[in-house]
Amino acid sequence: MNGRLAAWFRLRENHTTVRTEVLAGVTTFLTMAYIIFLQPAVLSGRLFGGDTGMDFGAVTTATCLSAALATLVMGWWARLPIALAPGMGENFFFVLTAIPVAAKLGHEEPWRAALGAVFVAGILFFGLSLLGLRKRLIDAVSPSLKSGIAAGIGLFIAFLGLHNAGVIVADPGTMVKLDPQWLSPDRIVFALGLFVTGALLARGVRGAVLWGIVAAGITTAGLRLAVTLLPPAAQANSFLAGSQLLTRFEWAHGVVAAPPSLAPTLFQMDIGAALSLAMLPLILVFLFMDLFDTMGTLIGVTEQSGLAKDGQIPRARQALLADATGTVAGALMGTSTVTSFIESAAGVQQGGRTGLTAITTAALFLVALCFSPIIAMVASYPPMTAAALVMVGAMMMKTVSRIDWDDTTEALPAFLIMLGMPLTLSVGDGLALGLVAYPAVKLLSGRGREVSWPLYVLGFALVLYFALVRTRLG
Questions:
Q1: How far apart are CA 382 and CA 378, in angstroms?
Q2: In the chain, N or C: fewer CB atoms in 10 Å?
Q3: 201 and 391 in contact (C-beta within 8 Å)?
Q4: How many domains, in total, are found in the chain?
Q5: Parent domain of 294
Q6: DSSP letters spanning 214-273
Q7: CA dist 204 to 13, 198, 351, Å?
């Protein structure tokens, strides 16, 4: 069996082993497992203290099944170490914009119209992928921009890790700042995970990122038990004040649980409502968001892993079709846009180089349906995996050396991408900044012929999108 796997995934040519790939898949899953519980909280409206009409349990099952299906297609067909799941950003747009707009249009169950818009967008993804237009756009991106995308995703991932650990917090005067409570349990868990991961990586230990997460988990359990022994008055002191250990961490209520029923959301999308002229802007937004999130992730992860050859993503067409499959299947089951996850970089840093990494992650999404209490415990406390995100981000920054800093027409757009992703908290928006700037700077500097026509079309379309669509829908 191992021989067949090695031959299909070309493990020897990619300098990897079955053990390394499985370990990398576990690492990727652990860093993105939060989506299993955050997605239903968002789509059901619970995260916002409301009710969208979507069943929490059904969305949970739809999230796991759509993620497993899309990731399996990515792993087996495209043979890339990239996992997919319902995307962050797209899910907030689904609830905060698409559902309210559908409600204003008079639809009795607006969430069904919003699902219909996602489904139609998924069909369009298929068409663009089959025609090769999405791949042509990716191939048109210059090497400097591709390196900037990888570095930008690294900064984005690291920022998310620092935020999840509570190291960086919001501030009305400076936008963000360091949290002064350095001895908080959140920071202790994060610091120990970071230092263990860094030390093991420096020593060349395989599985360093995963072992760092395990170390953070053991520390979390120990601190939570210690806190439980304290009297209530002591729990409210400055050491514990505001700690996610008290407000978010939850012990597992059992080990195994039956998967929730998918029936409340299965095949419930309203395609007729989605095809109305008034819903067209929503479809375009879903289309653009998935296009750029996928493009950024594919470029970033393949650049980081060294899988990209001469700037070309291997089996890009299959990868893009896997992404489209996830979106269509997700809408059929009852969840928002499924897209490639930037957390896949964690598995790549762990040594994942082939689709076997993705298949392992897909299998764990299915397993998660039966072991949801355990996954809920890990996902409930973000500092456990925050160090892994920061370490992965640091490793991805090495691509900045490939940017042609001596050429302003290449360096400026790449820099805007790097800066834009963490500051907008969106891979797609940060990428859009650079893709608008690139043809504009080239053209104004008298070097317009260096830009291929797809990037001119894309740049112009992005300007129209932000000016006419994004400003209206928010």
A1: 8
A2: N
A3: yes
A4: 1
A5: 2-473
A6: HHHHHHHHHHHHHHHTS-HHHHTSTTTTT-HHHHT----S-S--PPPPSTTTTT---HHH
A7: 21, 10, 11
